[in-house]
Amino acid sequence: MGSGTDETTTAKRLLTDLVDDRPDEGVFRVDRTIFTDPAVFELEMQRIFEGGWVFLGIAAQAANPHDFFTTTMGRVPVVVMRDGQGALGGFVNACPHKGSRIAQTQSGNARLFVCPYHSWTFDSAGRNKNVKWKKAGCYAEGFDADSHDLARLPAFEEYRGFLFGSLSADVPSLTDYLGEAARLLDLVADQSEEGMELVPGGVTFTYDANWKLQLENCSDAYHFTSAHPSYIRILEKRQEKPDASTTRSVWESNANWSEDAEGVQGGSYSFPGGHVLNWGLLGISDALPLHESAERLAATHGEARRDWMFNLRNLTIFPNLQVAENASSQLRVIRPIAPGRTEMRTWCIAPKGESAAARRQRIRQYEDFFNPSGMATPDDTVSYENCQRGFAGKVQPWLQGYGRGMTASRQGGNLFSDSIGMTPARSVTADAQLCDETLYHSYYREWAKRMAGVEA
Amino acid sequence: MSAAIIDAVSTPLSRAEAEEFLYREALLLDRREWDAWLALYEPDCVYWMPAWRDETTPTEDPDGELSLIYYQGRRNLEDRVWRLRSGQSIASTPAPRTVHAVTNVLVERSDGDTADVAASFTVHRHDVRSEKTHVFFGRYEYVLARGGEGWRVRRKKILLLNDVIPTVIDIHSI
């Protein structure tokens, strides 16, 4: 920010300058500065990650009384704890005394947290239970006027096991924030009557590029055959000669990614708040671990919702949650570290109670495709890094990656969303080659709104 | 069967032989001699790099917990090698330069047919694409088995200790 400039005015100027959104003229462009500018990044931290709803984790990460897990909201360390009565709470993971982190590990179980620095003690509901040597401390009255409890997140809510928090109290209810995109979280949560869990063994990786490249890539059908030919070819090789040592994949014979497939193959949905889905028709494939539950799911939830659970679905809940259900099932949390650096915390999310064979299949598919040690994700993240380096070229500042689907985008839903009673703001029905890019508009319209200081 | 052959078959793996074998594998990886590297593995080999459950415990059950890499069958390693050489993976092209330094080699158990070998590794990787250098380190646990052409890998477990992955990690860097 330039010194002496009113911050809000500056933000509005930035947005006018950096997102060129003229729907009546068929123009949507993004200036590559939004991926590189430290001032933009600082404002993203304040207004998006530390100023509104962000995803924290799932309830199963703290399943039992006194369980906890840690995460971050922007730059702020956070601990989510389940108290002795079973209630979940979200707190800033910092001692009110000197600011030291209270919880030291990614997860655990603790009835009491004793601060390692000066032994102030807190219970699993965040209440201060002891100030060491308080009576001998000769505190004045003013000390007792302050709460010594852990700072509670100004907003903390759960939707069907998905936990969200906000460091600003000035937010809509979580239900309003998620809106109709909640129907897509339902499709994850309803796969088992016992709910979802994270398979033990989280994987963390970094890449040297902006967080919004991950945001976009999840929704990007256009890159698949370009970035992942080695993965596709290996699936073909396995299919030619399957044996017990190879893992099947739903993609090995799928028309969705075949460039000459005809007819409707899927599409995209955009929702208010910056949430988006891209999806593809997969059918009730026996290469999916969920196949064993196909009949039960149809009986419980109806065929339409069951069929949607089997569709390829890449969901983003803005700004930091992605649930990708395609080759396997991945839950990703995006953590921006700097304009040119991002940390990804990733897990295999799975329905509780699935058979050992289905779980094994899900895990093998996941490792192959999603891991940074696998055969697909590295070809994405290296491409993000190539983009980040290319963004230095500002001779032509406007990126041209937001135009596909412009004349196919429709207000409201379509037959496919109607079948599960979901009403998106916009929809695109696509063949194999359309590869909609208008769903990114939803990201950047919400981004622009939030950056201008308008709370979601 | 002559006495000499009986001796060769029944002699446990010595530390010197284990070192020779592990150093050979390291050199083949660093020289990108992939076919010779694959030939060190039995067709039904297990190649396993666990993930971490939490700060202190690696995952232990590959069928119920996530691994960074888990393959049963050399065929899967052949696929990985194919990918590295294919020119169809931007993450694999151009190839990084690596040095595997294998140390602390111990034969923990051996009969004439099989041997358990433990070692430590450090892999220095220079990624020429991004002009960045990383060091990966950890421990190896091998099960080697003696076949017609000498010792082969029946099982290799790679316990990667610094598991926050800088963009890419592949079979050439572990």
Structure description:
The complex is a heterodimer of chains A (456) and B (174). Chain A has 456 residues and is an alpha+beta fold. Chain A folds into two domains: 54-159, 3-layer Sandwich (Rieske Iron-sulfur Protein); 179-451, Naphthalene 1,2-dioxygenase Alpha Subunit, Chain A, domain 1. Chain A has helices at residues 7-18, 38-49, 141-145, 174-178, 182-189, 211-218, 224-227, 229-240, 294-301, 303-310, 356-369, 377-390, 415-418, 439-451; strands spanning 19-22, 27-31, 54-58, 67-73, 76-82, 88-92, 107-109, 112-114, 121-123, 128-130, 155-159, 162-166, 196-198, 203-207, 266-270, 276-280, 312-317, 321-325, 329-338, 341-351, 398-399, 410-411, 426-430. In chain A, the strands form five sheets. In chain A, strands 13, 14, 15, 16, 17, 18, 19, 20, 22 and 23 form a ten-stranded antiparallel β-sheet that branches. A four-stranded antiparallel β-sheet of chain A has the order 6-5-4-7, with no helix packed on it. Chain A has a three-stranded antiparallel β-sheet with strand order 1-2-21. In chain A, helix 9 crosses helix 10. Chain B has 174 residues and is an alpha+beta fold. Chain B has a single domain, classed as Nuclear Transport Factor 2, Chain: A (Roll). Chain B has helices spanning 3-10, 15-30, 34-38, 74-86; strands spanning 41-50, 67-72, 97-110, 114-127, 132-147, 150-160, 165-166. The longest helix of chain B is centred in the first third of the chain and has 16 residues, at 15-30. The radius of gyration of chain B is 17 Å and the shape is globular. The N and C termini of chain B lie far apart (41 Å). The model of chain B has no long low-confidence stretch (mean pLDDT 94). Chains A and B meet through strand 14, helix 8, strand 20, helix 11 and helix 12 of A and strand 1, strand 2, helix 4 and strand 7 of B. Strand 14 of chain A pairs parallel with strand 7 of chain B, so a sheet runs across the interface.
